[in-house]
Amino acid sequence: MTHQALVVPVAHKHAATIYVAVELSMSSWVIGLVDPRNGKISRHQISCSDLDRLMELISRARKAAGCERVVLCYEAGRDGFWLSRILQQRGLEVLVLDPASLPVDRRQRRAKSDGLDVEMLLRAVMAHERGEPRACSVCRVPSVEEEDARRLPRERERLQSERTAHSNRIKGLLAVQGIYHVTPLRPDFQDRLKEKSTGDGRPLPLQLLREIEREVERLRLVQEALKQVEKEMADLAMWNTRIGRIIRMLMRFKGIGPVLATVLACECLYKDFANRSEIGSYSGLVPSPWRSGGIQREQGISKAGNGRLRSSMIELGWLWLQWQPNSALSKWFHERVGDLKGRIRKIAIVAMARKLLIALWKFATTGVVPEGAILAD
Predict the structure, then answer these.
(1) Whole-angstrom Cα distance, residue 192 to residue 238?
(2) Cα separation, 120 vs 8, whole angstroms
(3) Cβ-contact 205, 197 below 8 angstroms
(4) Where do the Transposase IS116/IS110/IS902 C-terminal domain residues begin and end (predicted)?
(5) What are phi and psi of 2, to 5 degrees?
(6) Is 372 inside a domain boundary?
(7) Disulfide check for 239: which of 127, 128, 244, 341 has CB 3.0–4.6 Å away?
(8) Would you state the pLDDT for residue 183?
(9) Looking at the 3D structure of the chain, how many domains does it have?
(10) Which CATH number belongs to the domain containing residue 40 in this structure?
C-alpha cells in the first residue's frame, strides 16, 4: 500500500534527484521515496531482502519523475554494508548513516514506527545533500578485504571473554564445595582436581565432576581457537595490503606488539581521516563539555566512537610510558602528573592516549616518527 501525506522541501542543489530511505528489519523493509516534482513522500512495504521489488519501485519513480539520479540511505547496524555494495553496483548512490547522529524527538513518550523512521532518514539525507552542517554523519563503507580483516581481532576479543567465563564458572562450582585458589587453565588441572576434597572432607560429587569435565572441554576448545586466531593475526602482518603495511610499521615501535598493532590497523588506521579532529572523534577520546548559561562543567570523554580502539589506546598509553620513556609524549605526561597518583593519572593517560593515536596516525600516513620515540632494530 502507498501512503502520501508528508511534504518535505527538496534539496535545491539536486532538484532532479530521487531520495530513497530504507528502514531495515528481519521480516520486512519499509521504503520511502521523495518525488522531486512536489516533495511528497510515498511509503512502501516489501519483503526483507527483496532487491528486485526495491529496484522496481526506484525504476517506476525514475520514469515518473523523468530523472536518473537516485540517492538511497539506510542506518548502519546489524545488516552491515552488503546492501550498500550491491546497490552501488546497480548504479545508485548509497549513504550509510550513523544512527546516533540522527535528530530525534526528545519527548519521553514519542511516537515510533518504521514509517516515521523513514521520514526522519529522508529529512536527514536531504539536509545533508543541501550542505547543512551536522545534519547527520555518513559512515565510510570499508572494502570487503578491510571488513574481513577486522574479524580476527574481534573474534580474539570474544574468545578471551568466553575463556574467562568458562574459567570463572569452574572456580564458582568448586567454591561452592569449599575449594579455592584453583587454576583451570593449567594443563594438569584435571589431574590435580582428582586429589581435591570438599571443605568438609568429602570427595567431590560425581555429577559435579562430570559438569566440570564438560566445562574443561569447552575451555580447551576455546583455547585452541584462540591460538589459531592469534596465529592468523600474526600472519596478517605479512599480507601485501594497506592493513598489513600499517601493522608492520607499528610493530617497529618498542612497546607495540602484534596484537595491539593489528587492532589499531584494523579498527582505525586503515581509514582515511581528513584531520586530527576526525580521528579524535572517531576514538571517542575527546572531551564533552557542558556549557549553558552560567553552568560550565566537564562530562568526561565522549565515548562516542570505537570502544575497541579506545580501550586499546588506553592500554598502549601505559605501555608507551614504560617502553618509550624519553619520547615527547611520555615527558609531557610526567610534567603534568609529577608524583600524583590515582584519579589524576587516569585522566592524564586518556589525554595522552588521544595524542598518541594522532601521532601514530601521522606516522602511518606520512612516515613522521613521534618526537623522541625509539624504533626497534
Answers:
(1) 41
(2) 11
(3) no
(4) 248-326
(5) -105, 135
(6) no
(7) 244
(8) 94
(9) 3
(10) 3.30.420
